[in-house]
Amino acid sequence: MNSNKKTLKVFAYSYLIFLYAPVLLLPIFAFNDSTIISFPLNSFTFKWFAGLTQETYLQESLKNSLFVAISTSILSTCLGILASRASARYEFFGKKSILSFLILPLFLPEIIIGVALLVVLMQLGLSLSLWTVILGHTLVCTPFSIAILNSAFANMDMSLEEASLDLGETRFGTFKRVILPMVSPGLIASFLICFTISLDEFIIAFFLTGTETTLPVYIWGQLRFPAKLPGVMALGFLMLLLSLILLLLVEFFRRRMNRATDDQANVQFGNLFKT
Amino acid sequence: MTEKLNTDSKKNIVELNGVVKHFGEIVALDGVSAQIREGEFFSLLGPSGCGKTTLLRLIAGFEQPTKGNIIIDGFQMRGVEANERPTNMVFQSYAIFPHLNVEENVGYGLKRLNLGKDETARRVNEMLNLVDLDNYNKRPAHALSGGQRQRVALARSLIMKPKVLLLDEPLSSLDKNLREQMQVELRHLQRNVGITFIFVTHDQEEALTMSDRTAVMFEGQIVQIATPQEIYSRPKSKRVASFIGVMNFIEGQLLKDGDQNTTVDAGILGNVKVNPDQMPIPLNSGPVTIGIRPEMLTLLFEGQDRIEFEISGVILESAYFGDMTYYTVQVTGLESPLTISMRNTAGRRVLEDGESARVGWGAESLVILKKSEL
Amino acid sequence: MMDRLKNWFSSDSSRGLTLIGLPFGFSLLLLAAPMLLIFFLGFWTQDYLVLYRSFSLDNYIEAWTEPMYRDLMLRSLGISAAVTLATVMLAYPMAYFISFHGGNRKALWLFLVTIPFWTSYLLRVFLWKVILGYNGVLNSALDWLGVIEEPLTFILYNANAVIITLTHAWAPFAILPIYVALEKIDRSYLEAATDLGDGPLKSFLRITLPLSMTGVVGAALIIFIPTIGDYVTPKLVGGKDGLMIANMIQVQFMKANNAPLGASLAVSAMGIVTMISLVFLALNRRWLRKRGS
């Protein structure tokens, strides 16, 4: 059994290297003083990062991407709130089918979504812009928002809502003062995930963008030019760092969300034994 | 708000008229009618699933009745939402808002009244004082013990000055000592504040200790509404009798000789004349079930004189409870053994298993009940 | 009657429908309508910029009979199958390692496995291009180390490159489901098997593998279905011989101005993939039932 375990271990570490290989190239060549991405390495340099600040088109695209990502995360989260609240709290005709339909975008290849939306927009005579990208991204991100928020809403104690109503608060007031605060960790997780997905998304943006491009579309354009490659490396490295930070934030809030609902359960459970 | 219906309703703060509630196929309430008086401590007592919580929620407004109607303070409650009713509820889980501290919880319902910071604070402090939680204002919700949460729930509801306070098994999650202490405190609180309390519980001891009147419920219906004494000593059915405390049952025959003479043939216990008030429901001649409480039976010791109603038996076993001892006694002529409770007064000895015993009782301690399967 | 209506309006049902109305309406508009349009589009024809809305099977016939499209479709299926196979086969031992030999550090291993995939997909594909290129990282490193004299050419601008790149890209999507399925296996089954004389290989084949099949099937479907529609990887590293159906679909919609043909290709591709997946699921269910559980 031990030799099996050893071979497995060797495999695991080799596989890990395989997984990291492309990504490790980013820090290596982002700081490498050469326009060609190959070995052997030259000297260490910051110039590619400095060069990024000169690229106005890059900064434009970055701004556009941020605008799209923020709008998408807000829209998706709002739609997610409505759908999750309906799903967790109410029973109604066609519930299962409607919910399955809402998460369908998760299972469709993005190119089909992109192409389909493009066709519809053309038929309607609408012009492409950042807003069309936002629509496409929202379609794709809402299922994620629903997935995250559904458990947050489902875990909420219904008697808290009833207590609020009992004390004279309206339904909307109850939503604002009780429900929303209780699902806030889920809300934040939803924002962050949708933001990350939108920031990174290429194909739908590629099909639906007008004259203003997003960051991934910009990068796609850069890939034709060999001279631009080290700059792309530097940019990629920065994006990796940003993604890591966002990932850690999501994990932090996900744990907060679990702990908050655990607290409720713990306190009620503890009451059976304590004074 | 609909018009006040008639001035007679003033005495009855809550009226239930033929309330029926269906959940799909399930019949939770099967025609419930009752009048609850202003200022009463009224309890709904019954086993799990009898519909008592459902009834409470209907009064609160969280559900609407399928049939029948509910009148609170003279106003029809049909179509009136929970947040518009003059009722407030203390939930079984207390439902303390976990993201708010004590004073924010207690003052929650006042926000919509726009009283201003000072007045709100004054009222909150007044309530905290009432429930013995002075200076707990800034305590976060998760740092409260079970008993404290309950007081916060009470304060939060009472601060709204409801006409009726609804309590859904609020003591069931507390340990025995705390529960007994809270029973006394709740009673005092209710007397103090003067608000009608409707209290749901499955614990008959609790209901009897605290209530002015109790409604016993089985399977979606109210079978008896009465004071604790009446329910205990004059239960309307065998089922009520067995649900409240312990009762011995003996089969017998009722003989009605005109309106004056009613006797019951209690088998081994002999022929006993009974008063009309010993029959909670008027019955005709025929087979009946006779009930007698353990404390209405007594064991006679050596040296005590023979009394009118006495038979002999054998002690099967005894259970010692500190202040009382419960004996199971096999009596010649009766199939099932009798349960007899004796107070452990000074000098009284505990009888041993196997010992022969003299069992005595008084004629007025019998209750005549309708014969039933249960 | 008014009462019944008023009752319904404040009922759970109406509230639920009101809430879900907006997201559902949004989806209907942006998903259902476009999908339907794509479906119908395949039955229309386009000449330059003019769209003829008369029903015609021409595009579907062309999509299915024209050798170029047929070959492209088959190649796409072949690449998807190869990627699925390769990814799952590599992912399984990794998932096994983490589940059975991960000890206290399982969460750490899982975290490490997912980090590389928090870079932009686009960048990762590009990085593979950089690695596999004629003057790329792999070739220059091997040359520098003296392992080869001539750069390797079979690794870029063909189907191989696509397969390698996608096998990398889908790795965590295979590792995680398989890991979850392996974690669910009660270890005492394996102890019992060893107790009864089974060697490690036998107990793996007879117990572990069948019980983890749900994870394997899940992984396979997660990878196979979307891979057919991948655009970026074939475009960047596929050269001529590695292009897939999605690239052709894009061409038809853009340059070739033949949206209906593109639509028929898209619908056909989705249809074939769905069919294959259903058949796969059915076969798998039968295989599991035969083995008994």
Description:
The complex is a heterotrimer of chains A (275), B (374) and C (293). With 275 residues, chain A is mostly helical. Chain A has helices at 2-30, 47-54, 56-89, 95-102, 110-124, 130-154, 158-166, 171-200, 203-208, 215-222, 229-271. Chain A has one domain (56-263): MetI-like fold (Orthogonal Bundle), CATH 1.10.3720. Helix content of chain A is 78%, strand content 0%. Chain B has helices spanning 52-60, 102-106, 117-130, 146-158, 176-193, 204-210, 228-233, 238-243; strands spanning 12-23, 26-37, 41-45, 67-72, 75-76, 87-90, 164-168, 196-201, 213-218, 221-226, 248-257, 261-265, 271-273, 286-292, 297-300, 310-320, 324-331, 338-343, 356-361, 367-370. Chain B folds into 2 domains: 7-238, P-loop containing nucleotide triphosphate hydrolases (Rossmann fold, 3-Layer(aba) Sandwich); 240-370, Nucleic acid-binding proteins (OB fold (Dihydrolipoamide Acetyltransferase, E2P), Beta Barrel), CATH 2.40.50.140. Chain B is built from 8 helices and 20 strands. By secondary structure, chain B is an alpha+beta fold. The model of chain B has no long low-confidence stretch (mean pLDDT 89). In chain B, α3 crosses α4 (146-158). Chain C is an all-alpha fold and 293 residues long. Chain C has 2 domains: 1-41, no CATH class; 57-291, MetI-like fold. A two-stranded antiparallel sheet of chain C has the order 1-2. In chain C, α6 (121-132) packs across α8 (159-169) and α12 runs antiparallel to α15. Classes of the chains: A mainly alpha (275), B alpha+beta (374), C mainly alpha (293). The A-B interface holds A 157, 159-160, 162-170, 173, 177-178, 181-182, 260, 263-264, 267-268, 270-275 and B 60, 62, 81-83, 87-89, 91-93, 95, 97-99, 108-109, 111-112, 142, 145-147, 149, 156-157, 160, 173-175, 177-178.
Features:
heterotrimer; A: 275 residues; mainly alpha; MetI-like fold; 11 helices; globular; C: 293 residues; 2 domains; two-stranded antiparallel ribbon
Question: What does the secondary structure layout of this molecule look like, with pairings?
Answer:
The complex is a heterotrimer of chains A (275), B (374) and C (293).
Chain A lengths: L1 H29 L16 H8 L1 H34 L5 H8 L7 H15 L5 H25 L3 H9 L4 H30 L2 H6 L6 H8 L6 H43 L4
Helix pairs in contact in A: 1-11, 2-11, 3-6, 3-8, 3-10, 6-8, 7-8, 8-11
Chain B lengths: L11 E12 L2 E12 L3 E5 L6 H9 L6 E6 L2 E2 L10 E4 L11 H5 L10 H14 L15 H13 L5 E5 L7 H18 L2 E6 L2 H7 L2 E6 L2 E6 L1 H6 L4 H6 L4 E10 L3 E5 L5 E3 L12 E7 L4 E4 L9 E11 L3 E8 L6 E6 L12 E6 L5 E4 L4
Chain C lengths: L1 H8 L2 H30 L3 E3 L2 E3 L5 H8 L1 H35 L4 H9 L6 H12 L4 H9 L13 H11 L1 H14 L2 H9 L4 H12 L1 H16 L3 H6 L7 H9 L5 H33 L2
Antiparallel strand pairs in C: 1-2
